[in-house]
Amino acid sequence: xFETLSDRLTSVFSSLRSKGRLSxxxxxxxxxxxxxxxxxxxxxxxxxxxxxxxxxERARGAEVSQALNPAQQVVKIVHDxxxxxxxxxxxxxxxxxxxxxxxxxxxxxxxxxxxxxxxxARWLRxxxxxxxxxxxxxxxxxxxxxxxxxxxxxxxxxxxxEPGNGVGDPVDVARRSIEYARQKNHDMVIIxxxxxxxxxxxxxxxxxxxxxxxxxxxxxxVVDAMIGQDAVTTAxxxxxxVGFDAVxxxxxxxxxxGGAALSVRHVTGRPIMFASTGEKLEDFDLFHPDRMASRILxxxxxxxxxxxxxxxxxxxxxxxxxxxxxxxxxFTLDDFLEQMMMVRRLGPIKNLLxxxxxxxxxxxxxxxxDDRDLDRIAAIIRSMTPxxxxxxKIINGSRRERIARGSGVTVTEVNNLVVRFFExxxxxxxxxxxxxxPGMPGGRK
Length: 445
Ligand code: GDP
Fold this sequence. Notes:
It comes from Thermopolyspora flexuosa. It is found in: Cytoplasm. One of its GO terms (cellular component) is signal recognition particle. This is Signal recognition particle protein. 36% of the residues are buried. The longest helix has 22 residues, at 411-432. The protein contains 20 helices and eight strands. 55% of the residues lie in helices and 9% in strands. By secondary structure, the protein is an alpha/beta fold. Helix 17 packs across helix 19 and helix 19 packs across helix 20 (411-432). Guanosine-5'-diphosphate (GDP) binds next to helix 5.
């Protein structure tokens, strides 16, 4: 997401870098480029106008900083303004004083609403809540079943009308679900409502009736980021028809432009609370405007990377690896394999590297990275005997050929792996002996 915008903006800034001071003409030219970049990213025109006007005003104003050169100042201003347009502070869920907290989802059919209900429920469960998923989309065939399957995968409870009792009344189902949640001690209720392919008065009325019946603590408007400018009109229609407290953007993985994300807040006055970035239940997180702005400007998103690692690895695993380092125990190919698999679990390598600052410019190279390369390395190590994994020095020429055949790679690949492993082993020894990395502060030169 945001690749085109990111590329355009970074190239605008790089042309400023050589300037010692920015004239009004320089600022005007830069603002023109920023305007084009935003329009190309499918950001709504009123948002573009307001954004560029603010950047221009601030860049021309007296914001003279000793610490920053002119190009850096413009980057800082654009960064600040991006955070602002994306919603400022991260908007977190508000919980009801007396449980259950009721969250109602609204949006068009196909926006990813039902999938999102499952993702949100799973996310809440991992934070220690006991959510109840409620199926109030009684129109779309299979919607109830889809929600039940998602609930099972998310390991949460579901409340749905019993099959065979006709279509049922969604308002009644919603009302009964709150009572049920109280009885069964569910502290969160997530209500999935019916959507239509287009904006439709009947759908709006039904959503409004459910809203009036259950008085949700949060109404979340779910919108597919890939529909671009249409996201804005749809959001406005839902704002008038049902009203909502915050927005959830789905399918951000598929949208290179991201204009919807940059427009929706400005146009509706409601912040983006969550972002959905894939078909898996885990592809979901709070939306952090500051981190997103940094990503767009290719300043990296280290915080998200760290959180992802913390979520993926339990403390035991981390402690085990750290213990191995501190004890100075010999680092073996088994450890190498284990570490590699840990990294692999964090997700596609190119996504991980993409969160590092400055990596945006290397997108072509990143796209060439194939996670299957790691699987090949794993296959090579698995074709070795336990003794060989402990001490690869004993692997002779004919064994290398056998291993290559066994894992379906060339002998050169086996050789490369062994060489790389010896380097890793050396580095581990250095870390264990407390000398640090060469070139690092306090490390060996
Ligand atoms: P609903 O009609 O609004 O309930 O939409 P669904 O939840 O059934 O989703 C419609 C389609 O979009 C399904 O095929 C989902 O797998 C897919 N989908 C949902 N969220 C995402 C997402 O964040 N990324 C991608 N790539 N696909 C998604």
